[in-house]
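Margin note from the TA: students keep mixing up input and output lines. Inputs are the sequences; the output is the structure of the whole complex. Example:
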Amino acid sequence: MNLPRVKYLLKSVIIVLITVIMSLFSNVSLAQDSYLLYGLKSIPQSTYLNPAFQSEYEYFIGIPGISNLQVGYLNSVTSYNNIFSKLPGSDSLYFDLNKIITPNLNKKGYTAITLDQDILFAGFKVQKALVTFGVRQRVMIGLHTDNDFFKLLWNGNAPYIGKTLNLSHTFINLVHFIDYHAGLSIPVLQNVRIGVRVHLMQGLSNINTVNDKLTLTTLDKGNNIEVLASTAFSINTSGLSGNTRFNPGSYLTNFMNIGFGIDLGIDAKLSEDFEISASVLDLGKINYRSNTKNYKSQEDSIYFNGLNISLINSSPANIGDTLKNIFHVTEFPVNYSAKLPTRLLFSASYFTSNRKNKISLLFSTRFLKDYNVAAIVLGYDATLSKHFNIKVNYMYLKESPLNIGAAISVKLKPLQFYLYSDNLLGINWKEARYIQAGLGINILITKKR
Amino acid sequence: MKNFSIKYRIILLTFVFSLIFLFSCNKINDKYSFKKWTPNVIIPIANSTITIKDIFSNDSTIQTAPDSSLIFIFKKDSAFLSHTGKILGFPEQLAHTFHLSLGEVTLDTFSNDTSLTILQTIKYLNKDAADSLINKLDGKKYVFPKFWIKQPLSLDLPVISNFNSVKLATGLFSLTIKNTLPVTIDTLTFEAWDKVNKLKLKTFNIYNLLPGKSKIDTIVLNNKSISNKLKIDIGIFSSKGSSGKKVIINKDQGLFFHLKASNLKGISGTAIIPNQSLTTGVNFYSIVTNNHSDRIYNLKISDADIQYNVKSQFAIPITLKIGIPFLIGNQQNEIKPIQVLPGKITSGICKLANANIDMTRNPKVRYSQIPLVFSLNFSSIGKLISFDSTDFINAELLVNKIKMDYVKGHIGKREINFTKDSTNVDLGIIKKLSGSLLFTNPEIIFNYSNSFGIPFNLNLSVLGKNKNSGQQIIIKADSIPINYPLVTGGTVYRSLSFNKDNSNVINFFALKPDKISYSGIAETSQNVNNIDFITANSAFAVDIKIKIPMNFNASNLVMYDTIRNLNISTDKLPIQDGILKIKIFNRFPLDLKGEIFFIDTKNNQILESIKTGLIKSGFYDSTGEVTKAYSDSLKIDINPDFLNNLSNSDQVIIKLTADSPNNNNSILYSTNQIKLELSLKARLKLNK
């Protein structure tokens, strides 16, 4: 056995082990969509962000399960340190929402958690076309909050007598699905490529909240306290086990909730040193048919001035019935559809003459209900050698203005190992509002010429 | 690999370990406190209305009058109940045995003829006449000579076929003697004899019997035994002849005898018994029970079973018929013909249905008798049989399952005791009250329905008892005339009332009785001229109704209610402190004071008490109806001590004191209510 080959294999094993250890240490709770991968064409997974992107390799295949794993967290309202503060002379952290209530008066908030994991990913070139396919697990959790939600949570309703607390933007959406996808990138003009990726989505579970109006008004009419609430609010769920025991087997093999989606992209080389590209991602929806439930308040408004009960003859059951009648939430099995939050990206890049350095500007926005997550990213790519690429960028998010990101890609033939984070400052996670990281390992094969 | 320089390796490792650090330090080891999280909430808790019906636990006892005032109503159906059977005392089963003898048997009438010619008698004639006539019997005219018989002669009558020998109770032979000679018979003397018994039946003397004429005479056979063989012995037979005149003479001329039997009733003997019926009447049952003044004139039995066992001593089969006479309408009085064979017992059951008996048609006793008629039908069918008037049949009758439909007559003096009974009266909250409570116009009403057509009086007694105090009080009324229907099938509905004008009923209810006992005696009228009636469905039923209009005067009326085994776990309440505010709206015509005591029974200690102070009565008009609520409020500080006391208490006593305002009467209306509005303003405690 020759020694270089052994060393090569040993290095590969060590890198894989580091990756696995990282994934174990990373609490899967933080991430938002990646920005760094956009335009980082040395990593085949960059085609996730624009299906028109071409790969440098004839064939590539991801290590199953870890060819791409990224997690992200975004909180538009606050950071950890903002709600837990230490009082002088105390070693305890006090929960205090005052810091986010006052400065964010009448502001909507958004908290997102995402997880993307490749189960399988591969691609190959057919002449000038690039074909990719794979299976990907995706989790998206979005919690939308009103400032009034925190006011009510922290202060109670007593300070707001005669005022209306508006919680109409407080809701949660969750989706967990398996994405079976196939992409095609083809040249349409001499320097223009277009791409498309189609998705067959297997919905596993979903919570989809529709909040048309949710308000709370407390009135003090002399001796009579009245509570008025608008409750045009409904929750659709699918795939939640409810009272039955969770069965992972049946959960993962449930093909009742099927959705279709499409990604579109274009990549144009305007000159030798200037390129532009754009893509639209996650155009599609999932139709939920399995174990669906719709929870809805029977009335769009509730007036409550105390339980109308007989203090003499009421039993707890009567009181329960009375409350049930007032806050009557109906539960019906209703099939429904839920759209994916569509994302739009646009980028312009400038290359140095040797094309080993690139400065890029990226605009990205994801359209959420009542909220758009928009970012402007200024990036720098450098090909340090044919084995080593790096990228650094600065990203402006209005929720988290300062984000310094970095990505590194290492090719140890035939393996490619890459790491990236949109915000290295997220290492100080107690102050960060945006945290994101991802990694992956691919096997890359280039035909000898 | 040679291109993978040390510099790049350092950058790579720095980046890798930075990310590892970034994600591995997510584990949070800080101490957390939520002490500053004390949201202030203000929430309406309950909006409760306590109506009078809530206070009276049994809603059915409180009713609303047309003017919306409230009336306590208690009902007890069928407190007294008496049916027809109890009044009349009709037995469920009747038994009777009767013995029926054959008695006199009617025998068929019969007749026979015989003749005595000249030719037969010529040898008994005197010689001159005999010599003269011997040549003149050719049917030509001759002088008929004078003649007489020299010696008696005997003539047998034809044998009677209807019997061999019988003893007759009654009987009559008519004997016709006709002169067929052409001359007058001067003297004819003869005797009729029973040849077997050698009994002379009668002697006949006939004179101057003209030619062609007849003479009739009879033989009375009453209480005589007679055989079927008779003869005539002629002692004198003479004539003066034709006295020179020529008359037609032939040999068949002489005497003609015609015997006819009639009215034959045999006592015994051997005879052919023609088809005949034997009927007898039996007074089967007397309704006179233990009261001799009963006079039942009309009785209708809708249904009954008659079970019979009949034994016959007769030599021939008989048909026994049982019937009821004096039926009204077109009903058949015959129940069922029963075939009874000689010497055997015949058993069976027959039905008696819809027998409407008019007892006034019974000529013997015109009331209270249920008559039955038995008739026997028999015949020897042309055969000679032996019989005797003492032959008999024995019949046993058992009448049961009697359904009496209707009785009309005079039901004699009777006393019907209604057994003493009692009922618990749920006076609801009234019985929980201590203090003075005088109702203005309470009433005990006895609603009765009577379908007995019998006048009677009722002696009534009502006893009220308070179980707690042991006190009791009686209300009595004697000889209350009870109305009754005047037509059959009618029912009268009337009421009796014990009220403040005719009884001490106010004191009765001031006692707050929780148990009422009642008894009664009904006495029927002694007037025999009354025509009473009872049907099968007749009944006398009495319902008791207690009616108490909620119009009263209350003084220091106290009601306690206790909630035991209390288990308030306030440590689960996330309340740091606060105020429970209770707004009270009193729409009762009563001044109220409320107190709530939270008690630790183990240590016999009152841990917490809440007092309302005086809650004045609502504002009421001249009719006593509250037109506007009096409002007051109560604030209860909720603090850790209060919550702790609630946790440690295991019993709550609620004391409510009520007084009629200004010592006026209070009238409760359905609109009376206490409205409570409970709200809580509290600082929540979320710092576990």
